[in-house]
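=== RUN LOG ===
request id: a7f3
mode: sequence -> structure
chains: 1
length: 160
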Amino acid sequence: MDPTPTNEPTNTGCLKWFFSVSALVILCLMLVPNFSWTGAYPLAIHIRVIDATTNRPISGALVTLHPHPPGSLDEMVASSFVRTAKTDGRGRARLKHMFGAGGSTYEISIGVRQSVVSGEATGYLPAKVRISENEQLRFFDTPWIKRQHRTSLVIKLNPE
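=== RESULT ===
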């Protein structure tokens, strides 16, 4: 018995297209030169200050960045980056700072070391939170897409 032809489509065309595109992407990635660099890089720190007992936002709280080691890049970099801010009505604030950094074609490591952000408000005990438990924050990047690098923190203040 001869097999009878059917009118059902085959996936051969789709597979050829998939493998062709995959091979082209791999070839393009291999052609991008790998480079390394060191210097300074801005990090945006998004902070939320809340009451430790009620978890409600605290507006008007003062948040301050304490880079470690102190004064490391401050003298070398323009002071256009905010290191102190007050929280808005939703208990949110944003700080930006230049940290020592290094990277390669596809990765950026920002050295936050033991830097902390402190929070204080009237009627609350002050508190400090490390930016990261690690000494560095790592971000995956591509040479084609430039993004702003950021991290988020929550500071819980206990009532006096």
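=== NOTES ===
The longest helix spans residues 12-31.
The chain has a mean pLDDT of 81.
=== END ===
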